[in-house]
Amino acid sequence: MKKETTGGILFLVIGLITVILSSRMHLGDFRMAGTGLFPFCLGMVLIGLSLPIVFRGLFGERKEGEAEIDAQHKGHKKNVFAFLLFTSVSVLLFNSVGFAIFSFLILFSLMWLLGFRDWVRNGILSLLVATGAYMVFVKLLKIPLPKGIIGL
Hints:
The chain has 152 residues and is an all-alpha fold. It has helices at residues 3-23, 37-59, 66-72, 77-97, 99-113, 119-140. It has 2 domains: 1-72; 76-143, no CATH class. The chain is globular.
Protein backbone atom coordinates (compact mmCIF):
# COMPACT_ATOMS: atom_id res chain seq x y z
CA MET A 1 0.00 0.00 0.00
CA LYS A 2 1.30 3.47 -0.88
CA LYS A 3 2.24 5.91 1.86
CA GLU A 4 -0.19 8.40 0.35
CA THR A 5 -3.03 5.90 0.71
CA THR A 6 -2.08 5.12 4.30
CA GLY A 7 -2.03 8.83 5.14
CA GLY A 8 -5.40 9.32 3.46
CA ILE A 9 -6.90 6.45 5.45
CA LEU A 10 -5.44 7.89 8.67
CA PHE A 11 -7.02 11.29 8.02
CA LEU A 12 -10.28 9.63 7.01
CA VAL A 13 -10.38 7.79 10.34
CA ILE A 14 -9.52 10.98 12.26
CA GLY A 15 -12.33 12.78 10.40
CA LEU A 16 -14.80 10.01 11.20
CA ILE A 17 -13.83 10.03 14.89
CA THR A 18 -14.19 13.82 14.96
CA VAL A 19 -17.66 13.65 13.39
CA ILE A 20 -18.80 10.92 15.78
CA LEU A 21 -17.48 12.64 18.91
CA SER A 22 -18.72 16.10 17.92
CA SER A 23 -22.18 14.75 17.08
CA ARG A 24 -22.48 13.79 20.75
CA MET A 25 -22.12 17.49 21.59
CA HIS A 26 -24.84 20.08 21.07
CA LEU A 27 -24.84 20.94 17.35
CA GLY A 28 -27.46 23.66 17.64
CA ASP A 29 -29.93 24.71 14.97
CA PHE A 30 -30.11 27.24 12.13
CA ARG A 31 -30.60 30.15 14.55
CA MET A 32 -27.90 29.31 17.10
CA ALA A 33 -24.84 27.16 16.51
CA GLY A 34 -23.85 24.76 19.29
CA THR A 35 -20.41 23.84 20.55
CA GLY A 36 -20.27 20.69 18.43
CA LEU A 37 -21.02 22.35 15.09
CA PHE A 38 -17.52 23.64 14.35
CA PRO A 39 -15.67 20.35 15.04
CA PHE A 40 -18.44 18.48 13.20
CA CYS A 41 -17.91 20.66 10.11
CA LEU A 42 -14.13 20.28 10.34
CA GLY A 43 -14.51 16.51 10.55
CA MET A 44 -16.73 16.52 7.47
CA VAL A 45 -14.19 18.65 5.57
CA LEU A 46 -11.39 16.27 6.61
CA ILE A 47 -13.42 13.30 5.37
CA GLY A 48 -14.18 15.09 2.11
CA LEU A 49 -10.54 15.95 1.52
CA SER A 50 -9.19 12.50 2.45
CA LEU A 51 -11.57 10.45 0.29
CA PRO A 52 -10.02 11.48 -3.06
CA ILE A 53 -6.55 10.68 -1.68
CA VAL A 54 -7.69 7.21 -0.57
CA PHE A 55 -9.47 6.47 -3.87
CA ARG A 56 -6.56 7.73 -5.97
CA GLY A 57 -4.16 5.63 -3.88
CA LEU A 58 -6.27 2.49 -4.11
CA PHE A 59 -7.46 2.74 -7.70
CA GLY A 60 -5.05 5.15 -9.46
CA GLU A 61 -1.83 4.34 -11.22
CA ARG A 62 1.56 5.47 -9.93
CA LYS A 63 3.02 8.17 -12.18
CA GLU A 64 6.64 8.56 -13.26
CA GLY A 65 8.81 10.47 -10.84
CA GLU A 66 6.68 9.77 -7.74
CA ALA A 67 9.37 7.50 -6.28
CA GLU A 68 11.87 10.37 -6.54
CA ILE A 69 9.47 12.74 -4.77
CA ASP A 70 8.92 10.14 -2.01
CA ALA A 71 12.69 9.92 -1.51
CA GLN A 72 13.00 13.72 -1.25
CA HIS A 73 10.34 13.92 1.46
CA LYS A 74 11.70 11.10 3.61
CA GLY A 75 13.30 13.55 6.07
CA HIS A 76 9.96 15.18 6.87
CA LYS A 77 8.75 12.31 9.06
CA LYS A 78 10.02 14.08 12.19
CA ASN A 79 7.99 17.18 11.36
CA VAL A 80 4.85 15.14 10.76
CA PHE A 81 5.30 13.30 14.05
CA ALA A 82 5.96 16.58 15.90
CA PHE A 83 2.86 18.11 14.27
CA LEU A 84 0.64 15.19 15.34
CA LEU A 85 2.11 15.12 18.84
CA PHE A 86 1.73 18.86 19.38
CA THR A 87 -1.82 18.88 18.01
CA SER A 88 -2.82 15.96 20.24
CA VAL A 89 -1.40 17.59 23.37
CA SER A 90 -3.02 20.90 22.43
CA VAL A 91 -6.43 19.29 22.07
CA LEU A 92 -6.09 17.79 25.53
CA LEU A 93 -5.29 21.24 26.96
CA PHE A 94 -7.96 23.11 24.97
CA ASN A 95 -10.50 23.44 27.80
CA SER A 96 -8.01 24.50 30.45
CA VAL A 97 -6.08 26.95 28.27
CA GLY A 98 -9.10 28.40 26.47
CA PHE A 99 -9.90 29.14 22.85
CA ALA A 100 -8.02 32.44 22.56
CA ILE A 101 -4.67 31.25 23.92
CA PHE A 102 -5.07 27.85 22.27
CA SER A 103 -5.59 29.43 18.84
CA PHE A 104 -2.56 31.66 19.20
CA LEU A 105 -0.25 28.91 20.48
CA ILE A 106 -1.26 26.29 17.94
CA LEU A 107 -0.98 28.70 15.00
CA PHE A 108 2.42 29.96 16.14
CA SER A 109 3.77 26.46 16.79
CA LEU A 110 2.48 24.91 13.59
CA MET A 111 3.90 27.75 11.50
CA TRP A 112 7.24 27.16 13.24
CA LEU A 113 7.05 23.43 12.44
CA LEU A 114 6.27 24.25 8.81
CA GLY A 115 9.50 26.21 8.57
CA PHE A 116 8.44 29.81 9.12
CA ARG A 117 11.17 30.84 11.59
CA ASP A 118 10.48 34.58 11.93
CA TRP A 119 9.32 35.03 15.55
CA VAL A 120 7.86 38.50 15.05
CA ARG A 121 5.93 37.68 11.88
CA ASN A 122 4.64 34.40 13.35
CA GLY A 123 3.57 36.22 16.52
CA ILE A 124 1.76 39.00 14.68
CA LEU A 125 0.06 36.65 12.22
CA SER A 126 -0.95 34.23 14.99
CA LEU A 127 -2.32 37.10 17.08
CA LEU A 128 -4.32 38.50 14.16
CA VAL A 129 -5.78 35.14 13.15
CA ALA A 130 -6.58 34.13 16.76
CA THR A 131 -8.22 37.51 17.43
CA GLY A 132 -10.21 37.27 14.20
CA ALA A 133 -11.36 33.74 15.00
CA TYR A 134 -12.34 34.80 18.53
CA MET A 135 -14.34 37.75 17.19
CA VAL A 136 -16.13 35.63 14.59
CA PHE A 137 -16.94 32.58 16.70
CA VAL A 138 -17.41 34.04 20.18
CA LYS A 139 -18.64 37.59 19.56
CA LEU A 140 -20.40 37.41 16.18
CA LEU A 141 -21.75 33.83 16.12
CA LYS A 142 -22.13 33.63 19.92
CA ILE A 143 -20.62 30.14 20.07
CA PRO A 144 -19.72 29.31 23.67
CA LEU A 145 -16.09 28.23 23.60
CA PRO A 146 -13.83 27.48 26.59
CA LYS A 147 -12.59 30.67 28.25
CA GLY A 148 -9.59 29.14 29.97
CA ILE A 149 -7.22 30.78 32.39
CA ILE A 150 -7.56 34.39 31.16
CA GLY A 151 -11.34 34.37 30.87
CA LEU A 152 -11.65 35.29 27.17
